[in-house]
């Protein structure tokens, strides 16, 4: 009982040490959602009479720029250090969003170039955020950190989409663009004010910094290859489910968009609520012990949903799948951090895994589109379920990290007891 209390007592300290990274992630994601879902898809075609295709071209430019630069940007993060990389990444985002405002009036198609700059900024920023988190937390707290980061992303989706929808009703384009520009400006300011953690400072003083030529050797380890397959399969599933969402409601469930949203709302709520629980549980018992059943539940639920359309069954099966997915989501990022290695090559490894994620998000919708065109929503949903089950199977059959024993509470006690030397050093720097 005392061990469990100490485990949960560590939460406030984890939140406190995560706050700058959570804030930067939230603000940059909220700005992205507003720009690409509201500004480019609503304001430009409806009030500035730009082509509706512009949003698609801009999003493609963002994705391509991010994908092709992701690994190199991770290596840049290793060379600069996480603080300078976060400053550089948020500065690029600020440049991209600020230039979109005048370009929307002067040369709308030039926004595609701004979108590419945004992709480059994102590719620099996110490996730095994850790497900074890795230097702040040991194995007993990383899943809780990544769960908090997931919650920040969910909050950014609500803020960017909800706030953008309200602004679209009451404010013009020039006024509304203050939201994304102000958000990334605030993220830039936080990056400027966030010191390098004592743990990272110590790592950079004592750790070697491998060159880009050494990165392929680092990535060829069996654990990293297996995890690359996991990241690819998960992102294929997410991309495919996004592409199949409406087709499922129309062809299988036979309901309107509003009705589909109501049927799946419990799954969204329960899945979101399960993220924090999943992070805490993974820190307690080990990430793989949560990843395997979580993704298995999600995969089985999606496969059942592809065949059975009774409303009560859709609600129950989707809720079970949502809970399984929510529990398992933090384990992906925490395993990525566990496999990212020391400070010298960490950003490059994280960049590689994020490239696999980007590749899957490109492959998944493409495969789903082919299946939707040829066979309909059922096979597309089976693809989603099979991809989730692949994640579970690979995790069940391959050791992903060197230490996957059941947690005994030692890590939690270290977090909740007297502050570790790193924490002493961090407080001494303030």
CATH level 1 name of the largest domain = Mainly Alpha
Radius of gyration, rounded?
A: 22 Å
Total count of helical runs of at least 4 residues: 18
How does the helix and strand content classify structurally? mainly alpha
Please outline the major beta sheet.
none
Mind explaining what this structure looks like?
By secondary structure, the chain is mainly α. It folds into two domains: 10-206, Growth Hormone, Chain: A; 217-399, Up-down Bundle (Growth Hormone, Chain: A). The chain is 84% helix and 0% strand. The protein has helices spanning 2-9, 11-47, 53-80, 82-106, 111-136, 142-170, 173-176, 178-193, 198-206, 215-219, 222-253, 257-285, 287-305, 311-338, 346-374, 377-397, 410-416, 421-429. The longest helix is centred in the first third of the chain and has 37 residues, at 11-47. The radius of gyration is 22 Å and the shape is globular. The two termini are 35 Å apart. The model is unreliable at 403-430 (pLDDT under 50).
Protein traits:
430 residues; mainly alpha; Growth Hormone, Chain: A; 2 domains; 18 helices; disordered C terminus
List the helices and strands and how they pair.
Layout: H1 2-9, H2 11-47, H3 53-80, H4 82-106, H5 111-136, H6 142-170, H7 173-176, H8 178-193, H9 198-206, H10 215-219, H11 222-253, H12 257-285, H13 287-305, H14 311-338, H15 346-374, H16 377-397, H17 410-416, H18 421-429
Helix pairs in contact: 1-17, 2-3, 2-4, 2-5, 2-6, 2-8, 3-4, 3-5, 3-15, 4-5, 4-8, 5-15, 6-12, 6-14, 11-14, 11-15, 11-16, 12-13, 12-14, 13-14, 13-16, 15-16
């Amino acid at each position: 009982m005392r061990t469990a209390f100490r485990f949960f007592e560590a939460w406030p300290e984890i939140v406190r040490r995560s706050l700058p990274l959570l804030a930067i992630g939230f603000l940059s994601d909220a700005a992205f959602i507003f720009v690409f879902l509201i500004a480019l898809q609503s304001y430009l075609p409806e009030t500035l009479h730009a082509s509706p295709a512009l949003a698609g071209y801009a999003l493609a430019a963002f994705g391509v720029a991010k994908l092709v630069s992701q690994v190199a940007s991770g290596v840049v993060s290793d060379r600069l250090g996480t603080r300078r990389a976060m400053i550089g990444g948020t500065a690029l985002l600020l440049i991209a969003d600020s230039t979109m405002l005048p370009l929307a009036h002067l040369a709308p198609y030039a926004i595609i170039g701004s979108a590419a700059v945004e992709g480059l900024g994102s590719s620099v920023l996110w490996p730095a955020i994850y790497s900074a988190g890795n230097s702040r937390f040991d194995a007993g707290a990383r899943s809780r950190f990544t769960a908090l980061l997931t919650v920040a992303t969910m909050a950014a989706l609500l803020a960017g989409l909800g706030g953008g929808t309200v602004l679209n009703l009451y404010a013009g384009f020039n006024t509304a663009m203050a939201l994304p520009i102000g958000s990334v400006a605030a993220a830039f300011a936080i990056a400027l004010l966030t010191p390098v953690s004592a743990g990272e400072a110590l790592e950079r003083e004592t750790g070697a910094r491998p060159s880009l030529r050494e990165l392929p050797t680092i990535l060829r380890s069996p654990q990293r290859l297996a995890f690359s397959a996991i990241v690819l399969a998960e992102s294929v599933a997410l991309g495919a489910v996004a592409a199949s969402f409406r087709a499922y409601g129309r062809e299988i469930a036979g309901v309107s968009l509003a009705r589909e949203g109501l049927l799946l709302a419990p799954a969204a709520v329960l899945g979101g609520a399960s993220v924090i629980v999943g992070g805490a549980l993974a820190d307690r018992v080990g990430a793989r012990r949560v990843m395997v059943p979580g993704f298995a539940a999600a995969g089985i639920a999606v496969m059942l949903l592809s065949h059975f359309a009774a409303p009560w069954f859709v609600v129950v099966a989707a809720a079970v799948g949502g809970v399984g997915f929510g529990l398992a989501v933090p384990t992906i990022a925490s395993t990525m951090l566990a496999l990212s290695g020391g400070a010298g090559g960490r950003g490059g490894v994280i960049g590689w895994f994020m490239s696999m994620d980007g590749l899957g998000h490109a492959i998944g919708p493409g495969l789903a589109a082919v299946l939707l065109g040829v066979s309909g929503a059922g096979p597309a949903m089976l693809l989603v379920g099979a991809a989730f089950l692949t994640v579970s199977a690979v995790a069940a059959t391959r050791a992903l990290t060197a230490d996957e024993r059941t947690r005994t509470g030692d890590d939690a006690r270290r977090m909740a007891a007297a502050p570790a030397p790193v924490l002493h050093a961090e407080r001494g720097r303030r």
